[in-house]
Amino acid sequence: MIAIDGPAGAGKSTVARAVAAELGFTYLDSGAMYRSVALAALEDGVDVDAAEALGELARGLEIGLRGRRVLLGERDVSDAIRAPQVTAAASRVSVHPAVREAMVARQRELIAAGRYVAEGRDIGTVVSPEAPLKIFLTASEEERARRRAAESGEDFESVLDAQRRRDERDRDREHGALRAAEDAVELDTTGLGLEEVVGRVVALARERGLA
Length: 211
Fold this sequence. Notes:
The protein is α/β, with parallel strands linked by helices. Helix content is 53%, strand content 15%.
């Protein structure tokens, strides 16, 4: 199992998906699971700051990951969970312990059943601290905001401002705070192409006998 952590816009999803394809592993997008909870909360009118209600909601959801597709029940929400309002809500939803407990339990079930490249903000520190290879991707604030703006079509300054607030929440939250595991390999992706980053991760995996 390979764990890839890092802040928003560092390239976790893109790199994890490519590494999984290169090594023949299964890609696990933990962020999509929290986004799914946020989408369900917004659609059901559940306050994203109401911890108890969100925990109950999260425990009752059926979230499926099928390659690039994310299913909420039987519905494909792959595009819906990437909407800006869902992105903003996901960061708030994910701070609640009851939500995290529900999602972490599901992620551990999945990881135990196969060979995964799993990405998220606490994969290597909380979900799978025993992972034999942990990668912490970073990039400059500006680089991360440019990537997110290009992906979403939003204004760069707006994305940068929202990203700073999100980073602060993620670093300061009590449960699952954003930080690198002590034994993680840190890779700064600023100015690097996807192939170069993926190549470095794949080489590390092979050095450790994972592939």
